[in-house]
Each structure stands twice: as structure tokens, then as C-alpha cells.
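Q: I'm building a small set of examples for a reading group on sequence design. Run inverse folding on the following structure and report the sequence directly after it, with nothing in between.
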């Protein structure tokens, strides 16, 4: 009985959360949106491609691409059609700046220097996150989209 009581703290102890280390290279596992009406969409397709790289000083670069973006028929970036430009712009998202995790263990702060969507430039975005088993999930708040959409990004740390 004494042994069982001695082991009780081990059985009820909660596992410590895995610490988030942003530094390194990350591969996009998933990207999707929850629209203002509650429905789910995928602006970058079911299998988007992406990378996030963060250096030791918190400087980051993110690129997300829809893999099925159409080629420009003219073969010249300066002579695309309106639809080709639209697909290229809406099928990609890139930005860079600085990122840090707050001590609360649930908030990332992105200080965006430049972005493919200029409305983000020079802005700070707070994004709720979770991190477990090498997978980082965060939500881009509805206020950042301008249309009530909450975008989710899921990243796997590359070893």
C-alpha cells in the first residue's frame, strides 16, 4: 500500500507541454479557412505547398502556394490575362519580418515587414497557436483578412 501511495504523484502528474522553438525550417502540412458563415474552404487547395524559415533572431519568411495555379499562356509574366494574374495572386501568400512566441504559451506575434498582400505591411498580428509533436497550428485572425475569415496554417518542423 505504501508503494502505491508513493507512486500516486507519478500517475497523476500532467505531462509538461513541449516547448516551442521557432528557429528552423518548417513545411506546410495544411492551410484552410473558416469563413464568416462557419463553412470551411481551402484557398490554396487540398495539398498546398509552403515553407516557413525562422532564424535565431526571430527573422522569418513564409511562402504558401496553391500547387495547381495555371501557367501564363504567353509564357511572359508581364503579359498575363486578368484571370492569370488573379489566380497567381490569390494562389499564393508570402511575407517576412519578425516573429516571437509570447510567454503565455499560446500567442505568436508576427511583425510583418513586407507581404504579397500590402495591407499587412508594417502591421503586427497576434495569432493563437498550439504546438504538439513537432506540429505548429496557428490562426490568422478574422481582422487580418478583412472579410471575417479565419485562416489556419499547420506546419511541421523539418529535422
Amino acid at each position: 500500500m505504501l508503494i502505491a501511495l508513493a507512486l500516486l504523484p507519478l500517475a497523476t502528474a500532467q505531462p509538461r507541454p513541449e516547448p516551442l522553438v521557432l528557429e528552423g525550417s518548417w513545411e506546410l502540412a495544411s492551410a484552410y479557412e473558416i469563413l464568416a458563415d462557419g463553412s470551411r474552404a481551402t484557398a490554396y487547395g487540398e495539398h498546398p505547398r509552403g515553407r516557413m524559415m525562422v532564424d535565431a533572431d526571430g527573422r522569418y519568411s513564409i511562402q504558401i502556394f496553391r500547387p495547381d495555379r495555371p501557367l501564363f499562356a504567353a509564357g511572359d509574366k508581364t503579359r498575363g490575362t486578368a484571370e492569370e494574374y488573379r489566380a497567381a495572386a490569390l494562389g499564393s501568400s508570402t511575407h517576412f519580418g519578425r516573429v516571437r512566441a509570447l510567454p503565455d504559451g499560446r500567442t505568436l506575434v508576427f511583425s510583418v515587414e513586407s507581404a504579397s498582400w500590402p495591407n499587412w505591411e508594417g502591421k503586427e498580428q497576434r495569432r493563437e497557436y498550439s504546438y504538439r509533436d513537432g506540429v505548429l497550428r496557428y490562426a490568422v485572425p478574422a481582422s487580418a483578412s478583412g472579410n471575417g475569415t479565419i485562416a489556419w496554417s499547420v506546419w511541421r518542423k523539418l529535422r
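The radius of gyration is 20 Å.
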